[in-house]
Write a structure and sequence with these properties.
- The chain is mostly helical.
- Helices cover 65% and strands 6% of the residues.
- It contains five helices and two strands; from the N terminus they run H-H-H-E-E-H-H.
- The chain has a two-stranded antiparallel ribbon with strand order 1-2.
- A hairpin with a 3-residue loop joins strand 1 and strand 2.
- Helix 1 crosses helix 3 (46-59) and helix 2 crosses helix 3 (46-59).
- The longest helix has 27 residues, at 76-102.
Length: 124
Amino acid sequence: MIQTDNRPIYVRLADQICDRILLDEYRKLERIPSVREYAVSQQVNPATAARAFEILERQGVIFNKRGLGFFVAESAVETIRKMRLDTLLGEESELFFSRLAVLEVSPEQLRDMYREYLSKQQNN
């Protein structure tokens, strides 16, 4: 298997938790697995999982209730969407648009491709 994600493991773990929140697997104000539980399920060192949780807590995605564990913040979905949109429009769009320009993809072609993509998503 080719590894294409060069980000640190703890960043990928934080991203996975965000994905689960966006997919409504972890709902707002509900408890998520503990650091140890998550480390075991992902087969990583607990310190690595703890680092992912620290990132998410700093970003306001989760919060800690002392003695009870971590919970999904009420505004987690909005926070995650904003962070991901900022990343997409910032870092990722530069590479994407530069490749489109080299391939001479017109705005109209891009619009049509995006519409086709959305249509396929609705049918799944």
